[in-house]
Amino acid sequence: MSGKEIKIKTGGFDYRVLIDEGLPAETGRFLRLLFPSDRALLVSDHNVYSRYGEQVIEALAAEKWRVKTALIRPGERSKSLSGARRLYDACVEAGLDRNSPVIALGGGVVGDLAGFVAATYMRGVPLVMLPTSLLAQVDSSVGGKVAVNHPLGKNMIGAFYPPRLVLIDPLVLKTLSERQFRAGVAEMIKYGIIEDENFFFRLEDNLDRLFKREPTFLAEAVAASVSSKARVVEQDEFERDYRRILNFGHTIGHALEAAAAYRYYLHGEAVLIGMALAVDLAEQLGFLDPATAGRIRRLLGRIKIKKPPAGLTAEQVIGKLEHDKKRRSNDLIFVLPDKIGSAVMVPVSDKKMVTAVVESYLGGGA
Ligand code: GLY
């Protein structure tokens, strides 16, 4: 496989996302070219570290990096201020200076937490992302959102802090469970619907290759997703407006996750349902013609839509919608596709319509 490179411009500097097999083994060399330091902090979780940690440590040692490793417990609960506090201690013990990178090896939790620490330790040390989950590879490692959770809400304390380098090895996705993988594919299809019509068509024709994790198409799809996200964040790095299209499917998706107490859906599974229901709304509100809406629904439907948990009611889901961060006045703000490859932000005041689409899912999940 030949590697791919995507450059992302930010207000401060440009950074590269490299996609290729075996990149983690090159970490030491890449960092040597970028940072005038010999100290680094490697942050990972126990599961990811047991698979890939040694390889990265060896690659760093080969280039004479003096690395301290800090491992966190896998899972969202580690993404807290007390988790960050422990990593600040590790930064001090590692002897980091302002040129010494924090390297995040893992999925979204590791990236968000290590990124938050990199953004704030000494007012900012370089951040390098080695994302190992599909969601992290196509979304959270790119674009600079870093955060920890507050007991009252996810990602409430954070910053926009772009990484200096992202190294993606699509081969690590081979070991993801089928469920995790499909949840990540939902986020990939998102880019096709809201931003990249050609990618949508490629996915229509090649989704089975993606499900089989065929290396060539997997790399193509990861690169297309990252490129799409790059185009969006380059236009609106700080999410003043346009970047919010990346939240397609997230309004109802987040509400479903919250209503099910974050124990039932994977994020991508909830977003998949949120996207399908947003397509219903877009059709009902006249943003999409029935044929296009049907075409999008067909592609989404090929990643099995998860049934709702027993007893979940539309009221519970709508109740969580009302807490949505994107809400303005009494309207709920939805990201709705207006054709394949494009989306708009739409305030929706007709709560009955929203309730009806949520009920259509709760009454009839596949
Ligand atoms: N995950 C959405 C964003 O980066 O804006």
Number of strands: 11
What is the level-2 CATH architecture name of the largest domain? Up-down Bundle
Bound molecules: glycine
Please name the CATH topology of the largest domain: Dehydroquinate synthase-like, alpha domain
Strand content: 15-25%
Low-confidence residue ranges:
none
Q: Would you write up a description of this structure?
A:
This protein has 366 residues and is of the alpha/beta class. It folds into 2 domains: 4-169, Rossmann fold (3-Layer(aba) Sandwich), CATH 3.40.50; 178-362, Dehydroquinate synthase-like - alpha domain (Dehydroquinate synthase-like, alpha domain). The protein is 48% helix and 19% strand. It is built from 13 helices and 11 strands. It has helices at residues 27-34, 46-62, 81-94, 108-120, 134-140, 178-194, 197-211, 215-235, 250-259, 267-284, 290-301, 314-321, 351-364, and strands at residues 4-9, 14-19, 39-45, 66-72, 102-106, 127-131, 145-150, 153-160, 165-168, 332-339, 342-348. The strands form 3 sheets. It has a 7-stranded mixed β-sheet, with helices on both faces. Strands 7-8 form a two-stranded antiparallel sheet. The protein has a two-stranded antiparallel ribbon with strand order 10-11. Strand 3 (39-45), helix 2 (46-62) and strand 4 form a beta-alpha-beta unit. Helix 6 (178-194) packs antiparallel against helix 7 (197-211) and helix 12 (314-321) crosses helix 13 (351-364). The model has no long low-confidence stretch (mean pLDDT 94). The protein binds glycine.
Give me a quick take on this structure.
The chain has 366 residues and is an alpha/beta fold. It contains 13 helices and eleven strands. It folds into two domains: 166 residues, Rossmann fold, CATH 3.40.50; 185 residues, Up-down Bundle (Dehydroquinate synthase-like, alpha domain).
